[in-house]
Amino acid sequence: MHEELRALLPGLHAAQSVNLAGRDFHLGTLAGQPVVLVLSGIGKVAAATTATLLIQEFAAQAVVFTGVAGGLGEGVRVGDVVLARELLQHDMDASPLFPRFEVPLTGRARFATDAALSDSLKAAAQRCLASIPHDAARITAACLHEGLIISGDRFVSSAVDAQALRALLPQALAVEMEGAALAQVCADFGRPFAVLRTISDRADDTAHVDFSRFIAEVASVHTRAIVEDWLAALR
Ligand code: ADE
């Protein structure tokens, strides 16, 4: 998200920007590590293009995606953080030619994130969530969840739609619009990847209101703290 990028850019040293396919790729060193920061764009196609460019044009050795998501799983609340262990495209349906959700000709519906990369991000997220002050409306600190995140080209903003996704995919913790596309591209190129999302809404009838307020106030703070902590710990 723009707000996340805006929070991270001041920390980027020796920064240089390259515009490609309408995207600004920001190259430099962040917390001592060489990185490329870029907005993914919204939706699966935008995310797939961005991931391909990161790998093919900028030789990214690993890809980390941060952003926000709608909470689906029980107990996945606004302000919590979800680390993907697997991703699936909930709007992929080439049945009856292929089983529902399976990406045709790959033989699978679920794409696993890189375990080592995800573990190191998890450790950074745990350190940060313990220290970031939480919203006064919350009684407890933000929780970290890990498991299945589902992606599709649809902003889920009704309780009925959220319930339908829960019924179809009971293991899904959160829904967003890019992660599974990134997963498919990284699997094609054999690059490790991880996806970390802050929950901005419950994918229900108030999702659009919660979403906007949340990104500016909470998600960008989480992302900056977690990404910088994670990179610093790699040194
Ligand atoms: N990203 C954040 N909230 C979302 C929602 N409710 N549906 C899809 N993507 C989202």
Structure report:
The chain has 235 residues and is of the alpha/beta class. It has a five-stranded mixed barrel with strand order 4-8-7-5-9, surrounded by four helices. A three-stranded antiparallel beta sheet has the order 1-2-3. It has helices at residues 2-8, 44-56, 115-131, 159-168, 179-189, 207-234; strands at 13-20, 23-30, 33-37, 63-71, 81-89, 110-112, 144-151, 172-176, 193-201. The mean pLDDT is 93. Bound molecules: adenine. Adenine is lined by residues 68-70, 155-157, 175-177, 200-201, 203, 207, 211.
Q: How do the strands and helices of this protein lay out in sequence?
A:
Blueprint: H1 2-8, E1 13-20, E2 23-30, E3 33-37, H2 44-56, E4 63-71, E5 81-89, E6 110-112, H3 115-131, E7 144-151, H4 159-168, E8 172-176, H5 179-189, E9 193-201, H6 207-234
Parallel strand pairs: 4-9, 5-7, 7-8
Antiparallel strand pairs: 1-2, 2-3, 4-8, 5-6, 5-9
Helix pairs in contact: 1-6, 2-5, 3-6
Bound molecules: adenine.
Adenine binds next to β4, β8, β9 and α6.
Low-confidence stretches: none
CATH architecture: 3-Layer(aba) Sandwich
- Beta-strand percentage? 25-35%
Strand ordering within the main sheet: 4-8-7-5-9
Helix content: 25-40%
- How many separate domains? 1
- Helix vs. strand class: alpha/beta
Largest sheet: 5 strands, mixed, barrel
Strand and helix order = HEEEHEEEHEHEHEH
What is the name of the CATH topology?
Rossmann fold
The CATH class designation is Alpha Beta
Determine the mean pLDDT: 93
- Give the end-to-end Cα distance, rounded to a whole number of Å: 26 Å
Radius of gyration: 17 Å
